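Run log, item B.
One chain of 240 residues. Sequence copied directly from the ordering sheet:
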Amino acid sequence: MSAHASAAAVPSLYELFMGLADPRDPRGTRHSLAAMLTLAATAMLAGAKSLTDIAQFGRRRRKLCRAMGFTHKKPPCISTFHYLFKELDAAVVERTLQEWLQAHHPEVAQQNPTLHIDGKALRGSRRGDIPGIHLLAAYSNTLGTAVLELPVDTKTNEHKAALKLLKLIPLRGVLVTGDAAFTQKDFSQAVTAGGGDYFLTVKDNQPGLKQALLDAFDAPVSPSGHSGAAGRSADGHDAG
């Protein structure tokens, strides 16, 4: 199969968005769901961080909007995006973005990539007594972006969210790294069960494991490669 034919077989983001159900009332709807989501995704890739940014991005690029499928003279305003995102299922859009990313980069799992698991609170997402949004992400060095993100519920923690995240990622041939929060048996077992490897940090939250590692590295080793008691040679005689 030629490279051109292979690329043509991969759906565009717009085509994937066309397969989503539109949650809006069709009465009075001016702009297609696929066009609005494609515009929003493009604007965010270009640095937009708010609804105002997204709307202004479209208003300043009328020709681009027509290429995305907008048929009205004016691209959507801020309120149009607001009401759409209010009704939209974010998880569905997230899965669509993941599908698009993996379809365009099927070679990632074949290049023995490294995925870094880490959680961060979104800056500015906290409002008074309402806790901020905390996301757990799997970041790919190969792609230079997060391949998957999951929200961390206030009633759980990053470790439990990571177990769900690992079920959604192809792990064969992948090295998974993470900080000490993920240095748990079930996390390690989930990685190896998927065909991957792990490189995790060991700190004081696992005192038994930490001490076992220290003891293993403190054990004397002879030049022949056999461990021996301190102060004794490999054949068991006193060193002197």
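Observations after the first pass:
- The radius of gyration is 25 Å.
- Residues 90-104 form the longest helix (15 residues).
Flagged for discussion on Thursday.
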